[in-house]
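Q: What structure does this chain adopt?
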Amino acid sequence: MKFKESVDIIKSLAESSRLLILNTLLEKSQCLEELAERLNLAASTVSFHLKKLETAGLVSNEKHQYYVIFSVNREVLGISLRDLVTIGDIEKAVQEERLEQYRQKILKTFFRKGKLQQIPVQRKKRYIILQEFARKFAKGRKYSEVEVNEIITKIYNDYCLIRRDMIEEQLLKREGQTYWLNEQPPADSVYLQLHSQ
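A:
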């Protein structure tokens, strides 16, 4: 099982109202209003907890006429505790989780309302910022220089600097006036340095 999936399931089960909801749904599938009435909880509270359970894959829903009916995902609920805590490569999973937290912190620091405020000086931080620009490019598609500039300008005005940095860090490849996303980071790239922290 993947690390994040295990964490989501464990977190979702660590709340008494969610355990009550699951217990009630094990008896039979029910709509939101019925659950709220049976558990003596506000519909908004039940809705909040159902979303958490759905995110973890423990509950699914299906529309029947005017109602949305919630059911327990018995396959996921049937996972043993051993399966839940057995993660193939725990060290890699923890590292990926840490890296994602670091990435989110950098993005929050340097972006405001989808716009880059400034370029970080530190290379690893700058690379994370450049990766955000790379996400705007479709895999396998070729772009003209004008198209590249337009994509970059939506996030940061100095498109020349960003375009040049993306090529230097080998996030973008270039041949004449044609650009495309590099889907294979080279052996010495910052990407691999970040993943070896």
